[in-house]
Amino acid sequence: MKKYIISIFALIIAAFAWVRCTDYPIDEDGLLITTRAQCYVSNFELLGTDYQTVRTKAAVIDTTAQTIDVEVFYGTDLKNLWPQFTLVTDAKLDPKITGFVDFSNLTTPKQWTVVAGNRKIKKTYTVNVTVQAKP
């Protein structure tokens, strides 16, 4: 009897999981696809290897030109910076940030694409890093 109850319980859980997955579309990353069409960066942070900010002031985010301008302290190790983006609800970033990024080539800015919750709208943001003048 106990095995019978456990089997029925397992089947009920599997049925709920299957229904749940088919009711809501998910993308290749396992994230929920929604109807939201907004697609922008609301905040940007740049961290050093000690996970402390290396910005001299707040980053300037232009959602129309799709640029992010950020100044870092003089002497910052540009080869090991961790960018952090705050995105509008349900949006995601491509490519994913999985570790420290090399920003040392200041003439070639890094780019990331923000993908809207509906996965139909994509906007590529260019991150321009400048170094503070020597004190």
Spatial gap, N to C terminus: 79 Å
Which percent range fits the helix content?
10-25%
SSE string, helices as H and strands as E: HEEEEEEE
As residue ranges, the low-confidence spans are none
- Radius of gyration from the alpha-carbon trace, in angstroms: 21 Å
What's the CATH architecture? Sandwich
Look at the helices and sheets and give the structural class. alpha+beta
Shape: elongated
Average pLDDT reading: 91
Question: Can you list the strand order of the major beta sheet?
Answer: 2-3-7-6-5
DSSP E strands, number: 7
User: Largest sheet at a glance?
Assistant: 5 strands, mixed
What percent strand? 25-35%
Q: How many H/I helices?
A: 1
Topology readout:
Layout: H1 2-23, E1 41-47, E2 60-62, E3 67-72, E4 82-87, E5 92-94, E6 110-115, E7 122-131
Parallel strand pairs: 3-7
Antiparallel strand pairs: 1-4, 2-3, 5-6, 6-7
In short:
With 135 residues, this protein is of the alpha+beta class.
Task: Describe what you observe in this structure.
The chain starts with a helix and ends with a strand. It has a single domain, classed as Immunoglobulin-like (Sandwich), CATH 2.60.40. A hairpin with a 6-residue loop joins β6 and β7. The chain is of the alpha+beta class. The model has no long low-confidence stretch (mean pLDDT 91). The strands form 2 sheets. A 5-stranded mixed sheet has the order 2-3-7-6-5, with no helix packed on it.
